[in-house]
Amino acid sequence: MHLEIITPEKKVFEGDVTIVTFPGADGSFQVMNDHAPLVSLLKDGQVIYKSKESTQQVTITGGVVEVLKNKVIVLADGVA
């Protein structure tokens, strides 16, 4: 699945991942390949994403995530 993490200033990450964990407004949740479409608010916290090679994380200061057809777009307010 393809992940993009974007802030108003720059694109923080773009690449293929196997799983992503988000700091949702109502609690953390994970998205995997072939996940159902969704749009969700994000609170301050860590977006953790795993690829075949490694696990990485980005600390965001809120935002929105959209999942549609194995493409995940995070519009973050900012990164800490």
Q: Percent of residues in helical segments?
A: under 10%
Please, what is the average pLDDT? Answer: 97
- Name of the level-1 CATH class: Mainly Beta
- The largest sheet has its strands arranged as 2-1-7-6-5-3-4
Largest sheet entry: 7 strands, mixed
Q: Which runs of at least 5 residues are low in confidence (pLDDT < 50)? A: none
- Domain count, please report it: 1
Number of H/I helices: 0
**Under CATH, the topology is which?**
ATP Synthase, domain 1
CATH architecture assignment name: Sandwich
CATH superfamily: F0F1 ATP synthase delta/epsilon subunit, N-terminal
**Principal-axes shape call:** globular
| Beta-strand proportion | over 45%
**Which value, in Å, is the CA radius of gyration?**
11 Å
Distance between the termini: 25 Å
Give me the oligomer status: single chain
Q: N-to-C SSE series?
A: EEEEEEE
How many strands appear in the DSSP assignment?
7
Structural class: mainly beta
Short description:
The chain has strands spanning 2-6, 11-16, 19-24, 27-32, 38-50, 55-68, 71-76. The N and C termini lie far apart (25 Å). The chain has 80 residues and is mostly beta strands.
